Amino acid sequence: MAKSNNYFVCTSCGYETVKWMGKCPSCLEWNTFEEVNEIKNAKIDKIREIKLDTVEDINYSESSRISSGLEEMDRVLGGGIVSGSVILVGGDPGIGKSTILLQLCQYAKTDNTIMYISAEESISQLGLRAKRIGLVRGNVKLSSETDTDVICQAITQNKPAIAVVDSIQTVYSGQIPSIAGSVNQIKNSTLMLVNTAKQSDTSLFIVGHVTKEGNIAGPKLLEHMVDTVLYFEGESGSSFRILRSVKNRFGSTNEIGVFEMSNTGLSQVTNPSAFMLEGRNMNAPGTVVLPLLEGSRTLMVEIQALVCPTNFTMPRRMASGIDQNRINMLMAVMEKNTGMKLYNHDAYINVAGGIKVNETACDLAVVVAIASSYTGRKADGGCVVIGEVGLTGEIRSVNGIDKRINEVVKMGYTKAVIPKANIKSVSNFKDQISIIGVSDVAHAIDASLTK
């Protein structure tokens, strides 16, 4: 006889409790608990024996990966799509999640069936989107379906090489007594799809909506159930898109893929450094170039700063693409070590191109950009700046300095201001570029700005 088991799940972190709670004791979020009605079967079937293999007995090879046909996506996935893997793709509405997956269907290097199942659009709407990006391929099958049981049956019968389900928040199973998008539906529908994909050796892409905080909607358990979690990022109004991996069981999570959105879909950006620096005004103060390390590639990004006297009691400090708390800390370090009176100035910091910078190696570039805007002295047009800034004003070493300088040389820059501790690591570049090692903030500003 089936037994009903009711409990509550936090939609933010997946914490479970038998009673409703106003505040989650795990993630400390308020009003995030939803009731889950789970039916458990009291009858226990005969337990089957588990199959055990040694590492030598397992049949696997690099041939089990399928190329997506998109070099930028293959880079993020670790060299291609692993057969039987489940990949969750999240991103803001309209960012291009469906577009990039339709293009994946167009360019994937396989002659086997590829299925694209949309639970959000009718088949005619899906067809219009496919035609817009030029999807004309005989082995790609499109469908509009919301029932998880029907989708799993189709995957089992057709055994496609690649299947796409768009999206997990809009599909439902009639076996689960709750509405589509609920915690119970998302968890059980994902489990059904994952099990089906593994049994059919199908590479499954699942599209996930994101919350206003930028996290994938639904229980955190959703990200634990899949093999890979990808986020598609981009600033509103910008055509620049970045595909980033935050979890990958089959590759690195440090790689990114760079794309540009157009009327006919997404195109790969093979030289993102040139793309992001296009249109830069080198004669204006407040702009500095930073060699940013993203996985195995170096991106040249522009750090912009605008510093002006404030009209308010409390000056405004705003940042786009970089942590605002770090900006406040760096400005305090500058006041202490350079004598600049920034306490009565507004400061606006921007990373051009809509890219987000998370590494502390950008500290010195931010400091130099702020100093440039404050003093009116422009940075040398052929100069790049890199380094981490400590609270006492010292410049700390950064990782991957050789990769950064190599890209700087390729892009034609003539001077690099780097931490003094990194000088020995780039001695082989001394004949190709002028490298200045700095140990404190004041020295770095003088070395980077024109007199």
Describe the fold and architecture.
- The chain has 451 residues and is an alpha/beta fold.
- The protein folds into 3 domains: 40 residues; 207 residues, P-loop containing nucleotide triphosphate hydrolases (Rossmann fold, 3-Layer(aba) Sandwich); 174 residues, Ribosomal Protein S5, domain 2 (2-Layer Sandwich), CATH 3.30.230.
- Helix content is 25%, strand content 28%.
- It contains 11 helices and 23 strands.
- The radius of gyration is 26 Å and the shape is globular.
- The mean pLDDT is 90.
Report a brief summary of the structure.
With 451 residues, the chain is an alpha/beta fold.
List keywords for this structure.
3 domains, 25% helix, single chain, 28% strand, 9-stranded mixed beta sheet, 451 residues, alpha/beta, 4-stranded mixed beta sheet, Rossmann fold, globular, Ribosomal Protein S5, domain 2
| CATH architecture verdict of the largest domain | 3-Layer(aba) Sandwich
Q: Report the C-alpha radius of gyration, rounded.
A: 26 Å
Q: How would a crystallographer describe the biggest sheet?
A: 9 strands, mixed
Overall average residue pLDDT: 90
CATH topology category name of the largest domain = Rossmann fold
CATH class of the largest domain: Alpha Beta
Strand content: 25-35%
SSE class: alpha/beta
Query: Roughly what percent helix?
Result: 25-40%
Question: Number of DSSP helices?
Answer: 11
| Total domain modules | 3
Q: What's the CATH H-level homologous superfamily of the largest domain?
A: P-loop containing nucleotide triphosphate hydrolases
Q: What is the count of β-strands?
A: 23
**Distance N to C terminus:** 84 Å
The parts where pLDDT drops under 50 for at least 5 residues are none
Biggest sheet, spatial arrangement of strands: 8-7-9-10-6-11-12-13-14
Q: What would the principal axes of the Cα set say about the shape?
A: globular
